[in-house]
Task: inverse folding
């Protein structure tokens, strides 16, 4: 099990040094827009023309992924995973709209490019309208900024921008998608890792959120039953349902070897109303989670997921992430030196 610094949307050399300094073995990157000035600057892609014509911006090229990986490895870090593609690369596939087949073909090309670049894990989700929160306020410990969600408010929102989709349609669209992309992932040696729908409520804005329960993941793992298809297990999202359901699902899928990586964060409260919390409070027991993973022989990586926003912190959350990562590292060290949990 490796501890990794998660969810960089942009990167600087300083970010990579920081990840190494706090003891991480690698990093993950979230939905990178390689055309943005920050990424062009980081990857020095003014030289990209030499590598051939630019690909359509519905996929990543092997060359830019190799450049990214090399930059990360220069700091002694592994590029463990890219967590998700931009939402508008898969929205038509999720909703079953015209253009779905082209999006799936582009996603297949991205998987092949990931394989060529030797990046082994690609996270994805099945929520065309993303993660929802109804609050971001200074209600965390000591006035830290935390996000929260209240379903009584969330259910009032009807944007009219997405077509209504029920569970059956969303499942059918997902089955079409995974049937098309999983063989490509298997051939490319790239793991596809499904993150639960956050918040895990039945429907938002007219669109069903199908990956909201242990049962749904059991169905998905059964339908796409391959070591190349697994779970981006988010303790926070599962704990928004409850601490016990989260631990049950964790045990089941960890022992089945279907968890590729872990988002370790905590929450106060459960649906219909919850707020994010520091990793050392709330009802996610980080010690029990990590002990379960060790017992199951988990060989993936753990990241801290989103963290409360501390005083004077950066957008990425260097302070909050240092706190969460240190907490995880301390627990792992204690468990590994005293695995039975008894007196040392
Ligand atoms: Mn998560």
Result:
């Amino acid at each position: 099990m490796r501890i990794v610094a998660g969810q960089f949307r942009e990167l600087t050399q300083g970010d990579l040094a920081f990840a190494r300094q706090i003891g991480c073995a690698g990093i993950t990157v979230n939905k990178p827009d390689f055309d943005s000035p920050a990424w062009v600057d980081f990857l020095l892609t003014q030289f990209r023309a030499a590598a051939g014509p630019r690909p359509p911006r519905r996929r990543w090229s092997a060359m830019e992924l190799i450049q990214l990986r090399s930059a990360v490895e220069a700091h002694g870090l592994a590029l463990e995973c890219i967590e998700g593609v931009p939402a508008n690369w898969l929205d038509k596939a999720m909703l079953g709209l015209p253009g779905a087949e082209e999006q799936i073909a582009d996603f297949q090309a991205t998987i092949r490019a990931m394989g060529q670049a030797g990046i082994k894990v690609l996270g994805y989700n099945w929520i065309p309208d993303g993660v929802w929160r109804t609050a971001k306020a200074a209600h965390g410990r000591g006035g830290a900024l935390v996000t929260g969600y209240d379903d009584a408010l969330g259910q009032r929102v009807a944007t009219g921008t997405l077509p209504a989709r029920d569970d059956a349609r969303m499942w059918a669209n997902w089955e079409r998608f995974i049937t098309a992309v999983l063989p490509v992932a298997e051939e490319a040696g790239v793991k596809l890792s499904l993150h639960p729908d956050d918040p895990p409520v039945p429907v938002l804005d007219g669109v069903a959120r199908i990956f909201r329960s242990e049962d749904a993941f059991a169905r998905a793992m059964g339908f796409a039953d391959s070591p190349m298809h697994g779970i981006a297990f988010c303790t926070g999202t599962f704990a928004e349902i409850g601490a016990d359901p989260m631990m049950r699902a964790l045990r089941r899928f960890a022992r089945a070897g279907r968890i590729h990586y872990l988002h370790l964060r905590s929450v106060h409260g459960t649906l219909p109303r919850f707020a994010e919390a520091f990793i050392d409070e709330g009802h996610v027991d980080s010690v029990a989670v990590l002990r379960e993973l060790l017992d199951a022989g988990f060989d993936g990586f753990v990241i801290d997921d989103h963290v409360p926003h501390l005083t004077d912190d950066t957008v990425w959350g260097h302070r909050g992430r240092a706190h969460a990562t240190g907490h995880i590292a301390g627990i792992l060290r204690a468990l590994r030196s005293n695995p039975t949990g008894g007196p040392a």
